[in-house]
Design a protein that fits this description.
mainly beta, 3-methyladenine DNA Glycosylase, Chain A, two-stranded antiparallel sheet, 3 helices, about 10% helix
Length: about 210
């Protein structure tokens, strides 16, 4: 895969589409340390992915596509892996990586990133000065990076929304997902993954 040159001429090597074709739980871990990049007219922002949550589709009561629920909102989840599923929750736009085979609607929520490029622009967008609080939550990171509902269906393999190779985490933790208490047994599935000890993780819990 050739480098994707953005408008400001900063080259990043996009991850190949084959990367996103890993089984969803493996992909949720593999995304940790990867660089999430968004280019807008205001400039380029990016951050290392430090926290993810996997949603396993029809069998997962916490997934929007539970029971193969197919709506205008969830339609993109039935497509190929490696595209963006964005949706609005409590006025905040959240971004997911569509995963799993075609017609098997699975996705991975990006819960937190560690800022890399465009930190001053992130501060302006979030109207805060403390770097630690810029992107330590799924709604915070989209606002900081300029990810919107307009990115619905965008490929993560080409600008303006891109996931590129980043760093390799030394240790990964897993545990219960957050904010899904009304999803029956699914609330206890250990399908949340984060880089152990990273200060930008949205919520810290014991490993396991």
């Amino acid at each position: 895969m050739p480098d994707k040159h953005l408008k400001n001429h900063i080259p990043y090597t996009s991850l190949p589409k084959a990367f996103f074709q890993q089984p969803t739980l493996k992909l949720a871990e593999a995304l940790l340390g990867c660089l999430l990049i968004k280019e807008t007219e205001e400039g380029l922002t990016s951050g290392y992915i430090v926290e993810t949550e996997a949603y396993m589709g029809p069998e997962d009561r916490a997934a929007h596509s539970f029971g193969n629920r197919r709506t205008k909102r969830t339609e993109i989840m039935f497509s190929e892996a490696g595209v963006a599923y964005t949706y609005v929750m409590h006025t905040h736009c959240l971004v997911n990586v569509v995963s799993g085979p075609i017609e098997k609607p699975e996705a991975i929520l990006i819960r937190a990133v560690q800022p890399v490029d465009g930190i001053e622009l992130m501060k302006q967008r979030r109207n805060i000065e403390i770097p630690k609080n810029l992107t330590n939550g799924p709604g915070k990171l989209t606002k900081a990076l300029g990810i919107t509902m307009g990115d619905y269906g965008s490929s993560f393999s080409e600008p303006p929304l891109l996931i590129a190779k980043g760093t390799t985490p030394q240790d990964i933790s897993c545990g219960k997902r957050i904010g899904i208490d009304n999803s029956g047994e699914a609330k206890d599935y250990p399908w949340r993954f984060w880089i152990t000890g990273n200060p930008f993780v949205s919520r810290h819990r014991k490993k396991g």
